[in-house]
């Protein structure tokens, strides 16, 4: 494996395949790598079969945009269909988690299983030395050790989404946009005349597209309506199915004002599978957690436990001070300095040492109570 830090005169011998989504980030990433002297090609990954009876998948338009960019940059575009691998390794898990009333993060699984596994393996069969993506992530090498750090654009930093990728996979990845601001990326794309310079960032999950999330879930998971109660068990309404709700949710509960109750909003406090009951509360203290257990832990660097570090339990959350130590059954016990609001089982926690991403894990147990 070549070193990514080679001088420009040597880079023409290093081949890089860029994951081309059709968006502006991957397009500019490909341009920058070519300008640096690498031998660059693109790969468009199809991860969802659009013949699923819906009209929501944008894969055809995205492929056209990716091809237009590669034509403009005079680089070859490869195409690969990973839909079967996506179904088996990401989507099946997504459905299992929802049926177990957890809140999965398919974007993190997609990065681990597809973008930084299937893509890396496929690129190597094409003879590539590296893959590259348009993630806003910094990659540095210190004594042949790859470190992953937050992107320079604090509003776009995407380290949270690659926390589950094994470190040996990340050694084969380049992130050209790590030092860039999103506004400068769009500006450069405009100057280059790339047709997607104004294209909106993709939001949500590829296989859901623009459709309403509830409509999508209903296709795969049967509705099981049941009672909505307060924490004392008094029935306040009827829910559509527990899998539609997340801890801390305020919108869509459809419990209006109740006589003798405060006018303050209601929040989802718990999903009780044994009696198919949705518990709600007006006391936001009941959404607080001081500790959690994490499983499937992935470390990107050597750490010694117990560890004082920072963590975030959702994308865009401010870093939170915590203490991490071993627990039984290969779990981690994470204790926060300050209680955290609406932490959801099935989501992920990422660990940081200031700007460096240390790793992460899946949130498995998280008690919520003002007394914890």
What would you say about this model in short?
The protein is of the alpha/beta class and 372 residues long.
Biggest sheet record: 6 strands, antiparallel, barrel
User: Could you tell me the mean pLDDT?
Assistant: 90
Residue windows where pLDDT falls under 50 for at least 5 positions: none
> Taking Cα atoms only, what radius of gyration do you get, to the nearest Å?
22 Å
Characterization of the model:
There is one protein chain. This protein has 372 residues and is of the alpha/beta class. It folds into 3 domains: 8-192, Rossmann fold (3-Layer(aba) Sandwich), CATH 3.40.50; 222-282, SH3 type barrels (Roll), CATH 2.30.30; 286-365, Translation factors (Elongation Factor Tu (Ef-tu), domain 3). 24% of the residues lie in helices and 28% in strands. It has 7 helices and 17 strands. The protein has helices at residues 24-36, 59-73, 83-99, 106-125, 167-170, 182-192, 213-220; strands at residues 15-19, 39-46, 77-81, 130-132, 137-142, 145-150, 173-174, 226-229, 235-239, 267-272, 277-281, 288-299, 307-312, 320-326, 332-341, 348-353, 356-365. Helix 1 (24-36) runs parallel beside helix 2 (59-73) and helix 3 packs antiparallel against helix 4. 38% of the residues are buried.
Keywords:
372 residues, alpha/beta, Rossmann fold, SH3 type barrels, Elongation Factor Tu (Ef-tu), domain 3, 3 domains, six-stranded antiparallel beta barrel, 7 helices, 17 strands, globular
Indicate the topology:
Layout: E1 15-19, H1 24-36, E2 39-46, H2 59-73, E3 77-81, H3 83-99, H4 106-125, E4 130-132, E5 137-142, E6 145-150, H5 167-170, E7 173-174, H6 182-192, H7 213-220, E8 226-229, E9 235-239, E10 267-272, E11 277-281, E12 288-299, E13 307-312, E14 320-326, E15 332-341, E16 348-353, E17 356-365
Parallel strand pairs: 1-2, 1-4, 2-3, 4-7, 8-11
Antiparallel strand pairs: 5-6, 8-9, 10-11, 12-15, 12-17, 13-14, 13-16, 14-15, 16-17
Helix pairs in contact: 1-2, 1-6, 3-4
């Amino acid at each position: 494996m070549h070193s990514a830090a080679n001088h420009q005169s040597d880079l023409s011998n290093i081949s890089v395949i860029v994951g081309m989504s059709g968006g502006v980030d991957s397009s500019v990433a490909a341009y920058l790598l070519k300008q640096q002297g690498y031998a660059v090609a693109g790969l468009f990954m199809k991860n969802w079969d659009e013949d699923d009876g819906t009209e929501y998948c944008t894969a055809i338009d995205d492929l056209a945009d990716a091809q237009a960019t590669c034509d403009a940059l005079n680089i070859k575009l490869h195409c690969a269909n990973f839909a079967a691998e996506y179904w088996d390794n990401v989507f099946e898990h997504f459905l299992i988690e929802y049926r177990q009333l957890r809140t999965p993060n398919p974007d993190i699984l997609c990065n681990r299983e597809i973008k930084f596994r299937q893509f890396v393996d496929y690129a190597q069969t094409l003879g590539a030395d590296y893959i590259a993506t348009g993630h806003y992530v910094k990659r540095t090498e210190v004594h042949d050790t790859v470190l992953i750090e937050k992107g320079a654009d604090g509003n776009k930093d995407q380290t949270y989404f690659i926390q589950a990728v094994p470190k040996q996979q990340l050694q084969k990845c380049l992130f050209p946009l790590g030092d860039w601001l999103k506004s400068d990326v769009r500006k450069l794309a405009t100057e280059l005349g790339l047709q997607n310079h104004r294209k909106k960032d993709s939001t949500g999950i590829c296989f859901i597209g623009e459709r309403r999330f509830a409509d999508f879930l209903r296709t795969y998971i049967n509705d099981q309506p049941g009672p909505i109660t307060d924490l004392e068990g008094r029935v306040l309404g009827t829910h559509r199915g527990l899998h539609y709700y997340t801890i801390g949710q305020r919108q869509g509960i459809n419990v209006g004002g109740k006589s003798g109750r405060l006018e303050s909003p209601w929040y989802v406090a718990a999903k009780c599978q044994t009696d198919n009951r949705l518990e709600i509360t007006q006391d936001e203290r009941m959404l607080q957690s001081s500790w959690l257990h994490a499983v499937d832990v992935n470390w990107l660097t050597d750490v010694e436990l117990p560890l004082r570090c920072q963590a975030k339990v959702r994308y865009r959350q401010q870093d939170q001070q915590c203490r991490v130590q071993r627990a039984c059954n290969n779990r981690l016990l994470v204790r926060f300095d300050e209680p955290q609001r609406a932490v959801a089982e099935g989501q992920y926690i990422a660990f940081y040492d200031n700007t460096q991403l240390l790793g992460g894990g899946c949130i498995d147990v998280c008690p919520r109570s003002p007394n914890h």
